[in-house]
Write a structure and sequence with these properties.
Pfam families: HD_4. GO terms for molecular function: guanosine-3',5'-bis(diphosphate) 3'-diphosphatase activity. By secondary structure, this protein is mostly helical. The chain has a single domain, classed as Hypothetical protein af1432 (Orthogonal Bundle), CATH 1.10.3210.10. Helices cover 68% and strands 0% of the residues. It contains ten helices and no strands. The protein has helices spanning 4-18, 32-46, 52-60, 63-66, 71-77, 80-88, 97-107, 113-129, 137-155, 162-176. The longest helix has 19 residues, at 137-155. The mean pLDDT is 96. Bound molecules: zinc ion. Zinc ion binds at residues 35, 39, 61-62, 122. Residues 35, 39, 61-62, 122 line the site of zinc ion.
Length: 179
């Protein structure tokens, strides 16, 4: 088992390698790794650094979904729990987007406590990325659509960490001010 610092450091490096060259949706074509860093840091702050595996899973939460990383590889390199957390946050990309979204809402309440925190942190980060000054009509529509759906997912994940719940509510408030 890696020490907590090595676990997180290696997760960050693997995430940087695997998502290399990818850009995130929203604000100014930011590199994808910015999203992963934000999610990992939200989780570290929310738990006051008490759960290294959760923070590592935050760095890696999109690695199975968006890159050729496998659950087995994560289990081998990190731990069974890190692999399980990431797998829980992985959508079946063979399904159409509307169906993936529907399943996220349906399945959110059944997730493990750690996966629920990752999902909330993910939605905080993705909402924030869609908040921009002077949004176009299309950006506003995308923000409204995203916030409505994310709120449904987060409703099924709440109650495990009051700070994270509040951060999400703040992001929704900031979004609604633009709509
Ligand atoms: Zn994500």
């Amino acid at each position: 088992m890696l020490t907590p610092i090595r676990l997180i450091s290696e997760a960050a490096e693997l995430a940087a390698q695997r998502h290399n060259g990818m850009a995130r949706k929203g604000r100014g074509n930011e590199p994808y790794i910015n999203h992963l860093a934000e999610v990992a840091n939200l989780l570290a702050t929310a738990t006051d650094g008490a759960d290294a595996e959760l923070v590592a899973a935050g760095w890696l939460h999109d690695s199975i979904e968006d890159t050729d990383t496998t659950r087995e590889e994560l289990a081998q390199r990190f731990s069974e729990r890190v692999a399980a957390l990431v797998a829980e946050c992985t959508d079946d990309m063979s399904l159409p987007k509307a169906e993936r979204r529907r399943l996220q809402v349906r399945d959110a309440p059944k997730k493990s406590p750690g996966a629920k925190l990752i999902k909330i942190a993910d939605k905080i980060s993705n909402t924030g990325a869609r908040i921009q000054t002077d949004p176009s009509a299309a950006e506003r529509a995308d923000l409204a659509d995203y916030v409505a759906w994310a709120s449904q997912v987060v409703a099924g994940c709440r109650g495990g960490n009051a700070w994270l719940d509040e951060k999400f509510d703040d992001a929704v408030k900031a979004a609604r001010a633009l709509l």
